[in-house]
Amino acid sequence: MVKLQFLGATRQVTGSRYYLEADGARLLIDCGMFQEREFLERNWEPNTVRPRNLDRVLLTHAHIDHCGLAPKLVQEGLRSPMVTTAASADLVELVLRDSAEIQAEDVAFKQKRHRKEGRRGKYPEKPLYTLKDVERTLPLLQPAPYDRMVDLHGGIGCALHDAGHILGSAMIELSLPSNGQSRRLVFSGDIGQWGKPIIRDPSVFAEADYVVMESTYGNRLHADHGDVEAQLLDVIRQTMDQGGNLVIPIFAIERAQELIYHLSRLVRAGQLAAMPVFLDSPMAAEVTEVFRRHRECFDAEAAEMIASGRSPLGFPGLKVVRTVAESKAINRRQEPAIIMATSGMCSAGRIKHHLVHNISRPDCTILFVGYQSRGTLGRQILDGNPTVRIHGCSRLVRARVAQIHGFSGHADRAGLLRWLGHFQKPPRQLFLTHGEEEEALALAAYVRDELGWNVTVPEYQQVVELD
Question: Which residue, 16, 46, 122, 141, has most beta carbons within 10 Å?
Answer without folding.
Answer: 16
